[in-house]
Design a protein that fits this description.
252 residues; alpha/beta; Rossmann fold; six-stranded mixed β-sheet; nucleotide-binding
């Protein structure tokens, strides 16, 4: 049994069938990409997995425990983290403060300190936050204002905020959207290094095939709300069903 299982999930919005009998089994420790044309149901699937949407039928299991019906906060506390398409950071705070906030949270949803004024006295918390910033290459900017970061560095900061929670599964929604090629390549390198160092299972929704084929162990292709094929990146590249559904017959 995989770390995440999507079982016969259906979701409609009025007369639109966004997800049609979706089944997925995500192997622990892998990077699994979900690709497909606009409107294929990728983001709807992600939102079902993290509790932002409730499926009409079917279930989502994480380590054998049901996620369906739980709130996003509860799912996060279970060890599932999400990285959004647009980086979600506290723009008015420093990088260090951004990472301290999730560092304070413990698995029961409480906090290890009760006031910001006491944070600097919590050496363990500060050291943990600084170590994570070091791991994503942002340690030298830890006191900088987060709102002034480049798009690529904002993504790095958000990944640091995610990693400090020690999740077991991370869902990334187009992690390189809007980036320059240089920032995209830097993010690919960072995600690959994260995989080597932390081994966290990742599900990536991505349109950039360079990102997908650089990182993914397995790829699921969706069209019209349904997975149409799953395989290794090399298998996906040569599958005529993928070329037809994703690029209208053009080669990947």
């Amino acid at each position: 049994m995989g770390i995440l299982q999507v079982q016969n999930v259906n979701k409609s919005f009025g007369g639109l069938k966004a997800l049609n009998n979706v089944n997925l089994d995500i192997t622990e420790g892998t990077v699994h990409a979900v690709i497909g044309p606009n409107g294929a149901g990728k983001s709807t699937l992600l939102n079902v997995c993290v509790g932002r949407l409730v499926p009409d039928t079917g279930a989502v299991l994480f380590n054998g425990r049901p996620l369906t019906g739980r709130s996003p906060h509860e799912i996060n506390q279970m060890g599932v983290a999400r990285v959004f398409q647009t980086p979600e950071i506290f723009a008015d705070l420093s990088l260090l403060e951004n990472v301290v906030i999730p560092t304070l949270a413990v698995r029961d949803g409480s906090f290890t300190v009760n006031a910001w004024g006491r944070v600097d006295n919590q050496a363990e918390i500060r050291d943990r936050a600084e170590a994570i910033l070091e791991s994503v290459g942002l340690a030298e900017k830890r006191h900088h204002h987060s709102g002034n970061l480049s798009r690529g560095d904002k993504r790095r900061l958000e990944l640091a905020m995610c990693l400090v929670q020690e999740p077991k599964l991370v869902l990334l929604d187009e992690p390189t959207a809007g980036m320059s090629r240089a920032d995209t390549n830097a993010t690919i390198d960072l995600l690959a290094r994260m995989q080597e160092e932390h081994g966290v299972t990742k599900i990536i929704i991505e349109h950039d095939m360079h990102v997908v084929f650089s990182l993914a162990d397995r790829v699921t292709v969706m069209a019209q709300g349904t997975p149409i094929v799953e395989g290794t990146p090399n298998e996906i590249k040569g599958d005529p069903r993928v070329q037809e559904a994703y690029l209208g017959g053009a080669h990947l």
